[in-house]
Amino acid sequence: MPLSQRTLNRTLLTRQHLLHRAGPATTAEGVVAHLLGMQSQVPSSPYPGLWSRLDGFDVAELGRLLTERRVVRLAMMRSTVHLVTARDALGLRPWLAPMLRRSFANSQWAKGLAGVDEAALTAEGRALLREKPRTPAELRAALAPRFPAADPAALVHALRSWLPLVQLPPRGVWGANGGTTYGLLDEWLGAEQARAAQPADSADVVRRYLAAFGPAAPADLQKWSGLTGLKSAFSGLDLRTYTAEDGRELYDLPDAELTDSDVPVTARFVADFDNVLLAHADRTRIVPEAHRSRVMTVNGIVRGTILVDGFVAGTWRFARAKGTAAVEVTHFAPLSAADRTSLTSEALRLLATTDPEATPEVTFTAG
Known about the structure:
Layout: H1 5-15, H2 28-34, E1 38-39, H3 46-51, H4 59-67, E2 71-75, E3 81-85, H5 86-105, H6 118-131, H7 136-143, H8 152-162, E4 165-167, E5 182-184, H9 185-189, H10 191-196, H11 202-213, H12 218-225, E6 240-243, E7 249-252, E8 268-270, H13 292-295, E9 304-308, E10 311-321, E11 324-331, H14 337-354, E12 359-366
């Protein structure tokens, strides 16, 4: 019998810790590792993302992981900034290198390089960043005289794709101010840890992806990673196969359990840019097609969303003013009294974590 959309939905929420939060024995670092990273082009996004998945999450825990260099932020999957563990930064980044290089070649910045040699630019970039971490503006100023025919901004964007450049704290630390300052990944994590790192193996990535996002097809792994040609990565693995309602073949770990389609789901908040919405070629297991354009805009914004009965049913955002902090919910269809009560309770708990000194407010608007 084909897997229903509701079975895929419940199973995805279970594996994402969104059906039930992970208990106190699970750490924020462990959740980041399980998810193979969290999109973080907005530096604050992983905080509500972890709060929704981890019982008792404290924003200070993630801040410490960043400053202690146990997690880092750098360009990874889909050439977007992700928060990943130090181990995954060192292991996954080389695996993703072909995609990052191709992504830059297809970007608006590529034409600004004016034939700059990759080896020459990366050598200059490494030398500059070994001297000290630098902001994009400082890199542009230092590189422009060395490559006078090139667009200085394009030089920095190329380095971001060709070298593993970490965005250093306090960038990404909750409540701290700080623009982007780049450092070399191996310098930030230390030469000893970098030397000991094991490059990611495609088979292992497939297994880990399925543990967090399965059952899924090769096209889904490609959508999550940005890489192409990954169908062969599934070949020869001990995987279980299913058929989706639309006839697609889906793969899963042989001992992974499916979640019953009738399991009730408490209303949930999902962070902006959360990979639970982005990691499949067919996203209808969580985002109804009718709502997709209201959540994912043409300019690449992915709004924070609410889940009702496990599926996206609206958007949400923080709104802060002097002395107050609000969660503003826009729902796409009328909410039941129970769902409104559940969302209100969740929002107040979220604000108690993120804005403990502010007066909390929760608003609902039909949209």
